[in-house]
User: Fold this.
Amino acid sequence: MRLVIIGGGILGTTHASAAIRRGHEVVQLEREPEPRGATVRDFGLIWVSGRSATELELALRARMSWQELGGKVPGVGFRPVGSLTLVHTADELAVAEAAAAGAEAEARGFELLDPERVRAVNPALRGKFRAGLHCSTDAVIEPRQLLPALRAYLTASDRYTFHPGVEARAVTDTGSGARVRDDQDRVFDADLVLVCPGAAHTGLTRELAGTLPVRRVRRQMMQTASLGEPLTTAVADGDTFRYYPGFAGPEVDALNREQSQTATAAEHKMRLLCVQRLHGGLTIGDTHEYTEPFAFDVDEAPYEHLTAVAEELLGRELPPIARRWASTYSQSVDPDVPVTRARADRRVWVITGSGDRGTTLGPALAEETADLLGL
Assistant:
């Protein structure tokens, strides 16, 4: 089949990869010269630990796909580093204990470690914490390298073409197929069109699929200069338990009743995630804002909070902050729906709303779509 995929982010590119792997021909259009949305502004976490019970199998399949891709495409930067979620309070420890003793603990690779064993796994963690929940299945990739590396790999096939700086303006049914017209008045004919617009819910997306059951979420993050030593795992704090559905249960309910969060963390719906990049710097975040219109600037208070939490766990000052940024991603309003697929007509689908799990689940979601559409 001939596919046109509109959108060059994680969903568009993993869907292109799935189609190429199944023997189809793909033309991919991206409105920016290089994708610059939520995918490249992400942590690059393959976060199996936090996915819900209903998404666990999907997350494990995706993790295997990322490992396979990382072997074929070194530029993806796949590293099976695992993660440590560090806890301070009794209520946080109760959540970690429940996770380590749960029915899914073995599948997720959970183990509860005391401070001495935490430091044996990750010697850079010399700060204050009561225990650490180790997850061996979590992994990382390099978000700023990921998409160019995957496209270069796909371009080696004569069945893939990427058009950057091209905005799709119209999609029509020709009777025998679908036709996409771009902003340069060029036409691309296809048997199937997949629109993966990220957080662009208006314009062509709304024209094709109407108002979708998705919302936009804004977050703030930052990156430091090189730490000067390895951070051998991804790192999270106890507030992470409040956010991810994989930890849901009475222990999290008790944690949410606890008033241990700082006012800044509560106001900005924060948790700390920290990942070391290949160049040695740390990507640290993040906040969550759900009510639009979003501010066009960034708020300094969350960065001060993230710095304080990271320094407490590391037991040292952070390196200088090299970059700060905000990003906006699309999230299905139903937390049990990992991605929203809307059929615009018999040959056109709109796929968005994967939220902050797009990087984790991308390859598996693309394979699901391919199976659904009979590719």
